[in-house]
Amino acid sequence: MASGVRGQRAFSSRARSLITLVMMFSAALLVFLIFVIIGVPAALNNPVSQSSGATIALKIPQITRGQKREGDAAVQPYVEVLSWEPRAFLYYNMLTDAECEHLINLAKPNMQKSTVVDSATGRSKDSRVRTSSGTFLNRGQDPIISGIEKKIAEFTFIPVEHGEGLQVLHYEVGQKYEPHYDYFHDSFNTKNGGQRIATVLMYLSDVESGGETVFPASKVNGSLVPHWDELSDCAKTGLSVRPRKGMALLFWSMSPDVKLDSKSLHGGCPVIEGNKWSATKWLHVNKYSVPS
Ligand SMILES: *[C@@H]1O[C@H](CO)[C@@H](O)[C@H](O)[C@H]1NC(C)=O
């Protein structure tokens, strides 16, 4: 008899703790659902209203390849997903006119004939495949360059310290860069910072005709853009980007499993009319040390 009462008491206490547990779980589930239904979409639809500490990348609207933006939206930063094989993304309106002109003016007095890396020795050499002229600027050389490098770090999610100094390039009519990889084939050039993982190619001028960047090994069908007929023959050999002042092209030389991506093959088509100015930021797997 006595043991029966004890058993009932034990049972009802177990039931009470079970009910409490179920109620706590339901409350947690309710809070979670409210967050999912109201919280997340609000944050996604309104990224600009997030704290000013958010990175620039969270504020950049995204479009798919070939889409167009009109009016005020067309002059704000936005990103076009060009290709996943290779991974290539085009950031519009990323540099201001003043930033573009500053880089050109700094580079102009020091332009030299461009070279390529000799894959046997790792040293620079003259080459017919690359006929532009160029110069290097130091990382953090002045506040404007530091600002550009900070912006690059924010939208690539790769810290400033992983970048080489900017290289400014100038292509005149007929000048080009044959398709090549930005990653290295030698051990000499990977000593500092390891392999190059990604490249940001910034266009500092418009080009009247030609001068496109082309990815001949891309899996994307290059012809599926409204401006196909305006491209040079060279640009029609793959996925291509027409240079526009202030645009930044980001592409990855390595896949997420850090294998070299042969689809990142890319070239600079010959300029047909006008002048092409660009600035390249090569980003490494590890920190890249620069002279201080
Ligand atoms: C690319 O798209 C065009 C137009 O739809 C088509 O004619 C062409 O065959 C496609 N090319 C490839 C390689 O799929």
Automatic annotation (TrEMBL):
<dbReference type="GO" id="GO:0005506">
    <property type="term" value="F:iron ion binding"/>
</dbReference>
<keyword id="KW-1133">Transmembrane helix</keyword>
<keyword id="KW-0735">Signal-anchor</keyword>
<feature type="domain" description="Fe2OG dioxygenase">
    <location>
        <begin position="162"/>
        <end position="285"/>
    </location>
</feature>
<dbReference type="InterPro" id="IPR044862">
    <property type="entry name" value="Pro_4_hyd_alph_FE2OG_OXY"/>
</dbReference>
<dbReference type="GO" id="GO:0005789">
    <property type="term" value="C:endoplasmic reticulum membrane"/>
</dbReference>
<keyword id="KW-0479">Metal-binding</keyword>
<dbReference type="InterPro" id="IPR006620">
    <property type="entry name" value="Pro_4_hyd_alph"/>
</dbReference>
<dbReference type="GO" id="GO:0005783">
    <property type="term" value="C:endoplasmic reticulum"/>
</dbReference>
<dbReference type="InterPro" id="IPR005123">
    <property type="entry name" value="Oxoglu/Fe-dep_dioxygenase_dom"/>
</dbReference>
<keyword id="KW-0472">Membrane</keyword>
<dbReference type="GO" id="GO:0031418">
    <property type="term" value="F:L-ascorbic acid binding"/>
</dbReference>
<dbReference type="GO" id="GO:0004656">
    <property type="term" value="F:procollagen-proline 4-dioxygenase activity"/>
</dbReference>
<keyword id="KW-0223">Dioxygenase</keyword>
<keyword id="KW-0325">Glycoprotein</keyword>
<keyword id="KW-0560">Oxidoreductase</keyword>
<dbReference type="InterPro" id="IPR045054">
    <property type="entry name" value="P4HA-like"/>
</dbReference>
<protein>
    <recommendedName>
        <fullName>procollagen-proline 4-dioxygenase</fullName>
        <ecNumber>1.14.11.2</ecNumber>
    </recommendedName>
</protein>
<feature type="transmembrane region" description="Helical">
    <location>
        <begin position="21"/>
        <end position="44"/>
    </location>
</feature>
<comment type="similarity">
    <text>Belongs to the P4HA family.</text>
</comment>
<keyword id="KW-0408">Iron</keyword>
<dbReference type="Pfam" id="PF13640">
    <property type="entry name" value="2OG-FeII_Oxy_3"/>
</dbReference>
<keyword id="KW-0812">Transmembrane</keyword>
